[in-house]
User: Fold these one by one.
Assistant:
Number 1:
Amino acid sequence: MTTTTPETAVPRENTTTPLRLRVARLSILVSLVVLGIKYAAWAVSGSGALLSDAIETILNVLASVGTLWAVAFAARPADDNHPYGHGKAEYVWAVIEGVLVVLTALVILAIAGHDALHIQAPEAPLPGALLNASAGVINLIWALILRRMGRTHHSQALSSAGDHVLSDVWASLALLVGVCLIPLLHWLWLDPLLSALVALNVLWTGFGMMRHSMTGLLDEAPPPELVHEVGQTITQAGQGALEAHDLRMRRVGSLYFVEFHLIVPDEMRITDAHDICDRIENAIRAVLGRSSIHIHVEPEDLAKRHKPGASGVLVM
């Protein structure tokens, strides 16, 4: 016998979705403002390094639009074609954004190579650097907000967007220091070198985003500590059952999927077994929050606790 309650058969809509959508929309506005400031910084200074930073910010605008799409699509309720919901859309977009970041890094590297072969002194490095620094401050504040929202509401799209913007902050800081040093040290080669360093930073960020997002697409298990806590919860709430085994868990966005087998006495009535399952499900939700729980009820002769080498067995 397999038991799920109606509310877990089709996961309930995440009540934080409207807030996540507002943050994603605001992210587009912030990225456009930052792009305008960085374009002005390049126009004032003529610095190839600042141009590279502005080009990377164009990607931020496109990424913000993609993040809004991913958050909105992931919020759709389960349907006949997607009975487990649309939560993985955020992971898919995070991988796509990582690819775009890598491609942008390659473009910036090409610009840096061209500038290295045609070195020119920036026209007004200090005003341009100051404008770029102001954009960096805006990005720093917004990156911290995005990362916090992503962690709090389990949004891979917002977390990846925050990581992306934060990488832009470190690049802006390096550019501020470097571009200000050019008129003091007269090292004209420093401008294309900074462009190359920005590109390498962007490249590293892009690969990191793809690697982290792939764990969600491949249904990587939650941390062992959390799995152990859920196992302990099943043991405590499953009084009346004999054993639980083969516990498996995964997370898609803010929704956890939990499944395991529950051994009950042969003489137990179906209604009693169902009551135990309800009690276990409520206890698991108290730990995990929004969850889809699948419990397969089995008779005594399928218990594993007396079988040699059996693992993953929780004795009630």
Number 2:
Amino acid sequence: MTLVVDDVRLAHAPDRRVSVVCDGGRIVAIEAAGTVPDGGADTEHLDGRGALALPGLVDAHAHVDKTLYSGPWVPTPSLGTVSERIARERRERERFGLPREEYISALVERMVANGTTRIRTHTDVDPGVGLRGIETVARVAERYRDVVTIEQVAFPQGGLISNPGTLELLEQAVALGVPTIGGIDPAVVDRAPTVQLDALFDLAARTGCGIDIHLHEDGSLGAWEFEEIATRTIAYGMAGRVVISHAFGIAHPPTQERLIARLAEAGVALATAAVYDVPVPPLLALDAAGVPLACGSDGIRDLWGPFGDGDMLRRAMLVAYRNSVRTDEGLELALRAATTGGAGVLGVQDHGLDVGCVADLVLVDARNAAEAVASVPPRRVVVSRGRVVAMDGTLTAKV
């Protein structure tokens, strides 16, 4: 079935009304509005009524395996450190049956209804849970494969070196087809920073997988770890395949300029969630240096916290807000982090609103991309791979 999305304005060209022709899951033509003839029974026309078309939203950093979405309300105690939150999650996850397919499915449906067409999710792997999370998320990903692409990172939340057997589980996950492995705070969580980083890069070199490392450490320690990651990325020839998530250490002015230049040289990307009051990577400086920036939801209604709805347009707004940007240029950069830029960080180059791109687009009522980010309008229509999958905030596609 060919889908013609009539009378829309593209985010990068909002002054022109066009029709977007989708066939075989891709954008095959962009014509002046109203000029695409009716193709008969094999063509569906959707009246965009002058809406603004955004590229499909990309959540480049989620933890869907942890979610309690659609489940019970679980109060969150006041805990001060990442280590305390990890410990609490380890104690409580079995009590709530996590990871739970029902909750993950409900969350994925909400994310798609909000316009997300691609997700990278960090799935816990450790001797306690084994590969159960990987297998559970894989089943959900298969069920929803026609409406959203879900990519997993095998993530050693509780530590890689300090948790014997975890490294072997990461390798098993890669053998099952997981394309990326994770790490976390090599100095604070494992207290063996060079050992953790060497293990991750050695495994990636042997298997061809990517690396996405949670780095909450800041100050001089965080800056040193940035340098170590950049050095290994160059040494292993992994430019474009390494991401630092959260990246608190780059937010401090004394070392910021040097670290940004180092990441650009090494080809390391950043992913931010812009949650709570934590440091946020500098949007404008990263863009000026050519360092790719993605963003994501992080945890959504889980044992770490009560917030989140999987709305990546709202996340783009928060990235802009936390960066104190007020210009249209800054707002558009934040949207890029949640769309084409985020896709690029995940290694996807055919994401956008050009002929030849995958036909993922989101229709909203806004005059331009900057207004869409600033006002976070409802998603009127979501198209994934040339198929209407959600309308007015509700999943309509059968899965």
